[in-house]
Design a protein that fits this description.
Layout lengths: L16 H13 L7 E7 L3 E2 L7 E2 L2 E8 L4 E9 L7 E3 L1 E9 L2 E2 L5 E3 L7 E3 L4 E3 L3 E5 L4 E8 L3 E2 L2 E2 L7 E3 L16 E3 L5 E8 L4 E7 L1 H4 L11 H11 L7 E7 L23 H10 L4 E7 L2 H5 L13 H17 L3 E5 L19 H16 L5 E3 L1 H5 E2 L2 E5 L13 H9 L12
Parallel strand pairs: 19-20, 19-21, 21-22, 22-23
Antiparallel strand pairs: 1-18, 2-15, 3-14, 4-13, 4-16, 5-11, 5-12, 5-18, 6-10, 7-8, 7-9, 7-13, 16-17, 24-25
Helix pairs in contact: 3-9, 6-7
């Protein structure tokens, strides 16, 4: 397993994606001719496929369902071929407002183009952005993005824990424009699609949540948008008493770590993603309109040794803190406010049927030291104490049973609700009623 060297303001996003980063960063500054700026309204982090779970599509369409945070009247999408070794050919793409299931409101259907063309070949290890189209996109609504794959296409780039049902057509040709979508099967991943942007006024801004499975929403109810970033987006629209142009972008990845990539030789392959330090540029800085960052990484760095990695790879609190400091510095360099979150407890937490626990007294000591630094150092611009709201007051090393999804590691819907409510809206310039 390769451990990433921590260097302040160093870019750790290497290889063929360097060219992609420059293009994506340019897109952030781009001004829409129909609005003051673009912000992401929905996003997910690109991951390599899980071993044994590689899907192939041929002469089929995908209808991918996503839930918006902020609204707008003009929209564009992002397609990722980051982990593909061959060009990704998309024969057609459409976007529309979902009515129910796989179906869309017929009047909302819009054909998407890429550089004026209805098809595109996305180069290996790169991303593509569609041309903008006019479409009324309400806040907190479902959109359906449809992609047609005329050729055999392996979903080498995807997002594993969508917690959202999406749809695959029969192998009968291009179905992207159909209001009533013929369904051959359902999926609970997001292949290739990594972003939806809307045009808003100059007051708009995006909040990026960079984290692991607890940000990704593991333990929450599928098809309900009860991850804490979803609940925060809902609060921004409803608790403020007015429509806001603040969005929340969920860049959580199950099993993701701050300092190191997906464990080499593990059952997950590369699917747990690049280290937070490595993916920071493309998952945070290259999001449209980002002004705030909420960091929720570190627990897997602490917990994995002795479970998925050798015990000799146990990390210290100082190494975690050094990683946080780099993210803070890199965010501040781009004018982004960095908000830290404390790490909730994990006593009794296990993975699947494994007899090996995530918890040891030594690891608990590291967690406590990291949390103490987050609360007291004043190095983050603001701090949200997830640990304080989720822990059992009678046994602070454990989750409160009312907030436990059942694995003693991830929250349930109620736990994600209290986590989101622990985030003051005043951090984003919103006066709460």
């Amino acid at each position: 397993m390769k451990t990433l060297k921590i260097t302040v303001l160093g870019s750790l996003f290497l290889g063929a994606t360097l060219g992609l980063g420059a293009a994506a960063h340019q897109a952030i500054a781009e001004k829409s001719s129909h609005g003051a700026q673009w912000i992401g309204t929905w996003a997910t982090a690109a991951q390599p496929f899980l071993p044994g779970a590689l899907e192939t599509y041929q002469n089929q369409s995908l209808r991918l369902i996503v839930h918006t945070s902020a609204g707008g009247a003009r929209v564009r999408i992002k397609i990722s071929n980051t982990y593909g070794d061959e060009a990704l050919f998309i024969g057609g793409a459409h976007i529309g407002r979902r009515s129910s299931g796989a179906d869309i409101e017929p009047t909302s259907d819009r054909r998407l183009t890429f550089g004026g063309q209805s098809s595109i070949a996305v180069a290996a290890h790169s991303v593509a952005q569609s041309d903008p189209v006019n479409l009324d996109v309400p806040a907190l609504s479902d959109l359906a993005i449809s992609l047609f794959f005329p050729r055999a296409t392996k979903a080498t780039t995807s997002h594993a824990l969508a917690l959202q049902t999406s749809y695959v057509s029969p192998a009968t040709g291009d179905s992207t424009a159909e209001a009533k979508f013929m369904v051959a099967k359902t999926i609970d991943t997001w292949p290739f699609l990594t972003g939806v942007d809307v045009a808003v006024s100059a007051a708009g801004a995006a909040i990026v949540a960079l984290g692991s499975s607890t940000t990704d929403g593991d333990g929450s109810s599928p098809d309900t948008n009860r991850r804490w970033p979803d609940v925060l987006a809902e609060r921004l629209q409803k608790d403020s008493g007015r429509r806001t142009e603040l969005s929340v972008l969920n860049q959580g990845i199950i099993g993701n770590r701050l300092l190191t990539d997906s464990p080499a030789g593990s059952r997950f392959g590369a699917a747990l993603g690049q280290a937070g330090l490595a993916r920071f540029d493309h998952d945070v800085l290259h999001q449209a309109g980002v002004k705030y960052l909420i960091i929720g990484l570190g627990i897997n760095d602490i917990a994995f040794p002795g479970l998925f990695t050798p015990k000799t790879e146990m990390v210290s609190s100082q190494s975690i803190i050094a990683g946080y400091r780099q993210l803070i510095a890199r965010a501040h360099h781009k004018g982004i406010r960095a908000i830290g979150t404390t790490i909730p407890p994990v006593e009794n937490a296990i993975f699947g049927n494994s007899p090996i626990s995530f918890y040891t007294p030594e690891k608990e000591g590291v967690r406590q030291e990291v949390n103490s630094w987050i609360r007291s150092s004043a190095e983050f611009d603001d701090v949200v104490d997830f640990d304080a709201v989720l822990r059992d007051p009678d046994r602070p090393t454990r989750l409160l049973p009312a907030y436990d999804s059942g694995d003693h590691l991830h929250s349930n819907d109620a736990g994600y609700m209290v986590s989101a409510k622990a985030i003051p809206l005043t951090l984003f310039g919103i006066k709460q009623r």
